[in-house]
Amino acid sequence: MSLTKLPGRPLVGSLSMVFVLVLLLVDHGQSRPINPYQAPAPVALGSGVAPTAAHCTAP
Amino acid sequence: MTPSLVNQSTVNPAPRRAVLLLLALGLVFGTFAMAGPRAALLMLVGLGFGLTLEGLRFGFTGPWRNIVTERDGRGLVAQFLAIGLTAVFAFPLLASFPTELNGAHAPVGIAMIVAAFVFGMAMQLVMGCGSGTLVNAGSGNAIALVALLGFIAGSFFGTLHLGWWQSFGVLPLITLQDQFGSGGGLVVTLLGLGALAMLVLRRAAPGKRLPPRRLLLAAALIAGLAILNLVIAGQSWGVVYGLGLWGAKLATAAGADLAGNAFWGAPAHAERLVQSLLTDVTSLTNIGLIAGAFVVMRWRAEPDPQVAPITARSWTIVLVAGLVLGYSARVALGCNVGAFFSGVSTGSLHGWVWFVAAFGGSLLGIRLRPRLLLPLVAASQGGGR
After folding, report:
1. Which of chain B's residues have a Cβ under 8 Å away from the Cβ of A13?
2. Is residue B381 packed enough to be buried (19+ CB in 10 Å), middle (13-18) or exposed (0-12)?
3. What are phi and psi of B348, to 5 degrees?
4. For all residues of chain B together, what is the average pLDDT?
5. ∠B343-B347-B349 over CA atoms, to 5°?
6. What global pTM score does this model have?
7. Considering CB atoms only, which of A40, A49, A54 is closest to B268?
8. Phi, psi of B375 (to 5 degrees)
């Protein structure tokens, strides 16, 4: 990549999407398979289940 | 005229836009097929965030800079409106469904305050915050893509030392709901946002005070999406946790053993590490954000011009600033989204403290940016060091 002329936004945006795709592929190769029968209710509100997902505010 | 010089506006955009629609639909339905309806809905919410932030040019970093340098308060007032609108719905929801919904509540601490200050500084250097870096990378901003890689690494490194930073002193968790009750907490939140808006309106120049219709629409959409995020996920909109998890996933793939680390060894985080990213709330909305911004950028008849080239030294600074951005966001217990937007809109005192500290850092970053990031042309003409 020349430092004097950067690639256009379509190419750089596509690179961002490729990065996400590679990340998902790497993740797919090392994570447990998703069990669709253990998927949470579509919406947490009204599910009767406490949220267990992680958040950046949680130390 | 060579093909590369053909004006893009003369090319029929319909086929490209059809592909973009298919891409967005494929992302949502693919997520549904692999991870179920909640994951698909969160991907849709993330896409909505990306479409709104990029499509209506709603951001955080720019307005913080504009009120200082241009005396333009329109973007900042729009941010306060979005947060206030979210709070109007979030406070009653959290009060009515305390076992199913969690606010973005975190304790105020010494390291948290310092890290928020550093985050504010770094976000002005890379011209992007937590959400902004994702949106800018998706919309093809070369600086943001480099900063995003640093952000991911920094967020991950931040998790490795978070416990140590927390040892510097942390107050008990304080929420406005605990102090004033749900209704009182909402009133205090709205009064606080109103007071900030008044300060901004006093500072802003005539004609640069009230948000235009575009930003009002964006504020309403962002608030609606943030409420949907809360209702669907059971927790508020966040960004940084997902990026730290991406770093941890990549580190693990490279052979790192994180089982012995205090953060990743904790049951909740260890579980996230072995589960698919498609089951992680913030990863889903982060991916949607990038994809939504990409769709908007490619949808336009003519994409915006690329950022101006910068010197090799400046690229290094962007990467380091991205790293600092991610690290400080993790230690500050959130970025402009998780700590400021979601923290304030769900009654966490740390959201307010985060904003004051980060805005102070932002003032420093605004001064540093022209000294550190040098355009290539200016440098070659003797303008650089």
Report:
1. 137-140, 293-294, 297-298
2. exposed
3. -85, 130
4. 94
5. 70
6. 0.94
7. A54
8. -60, 145
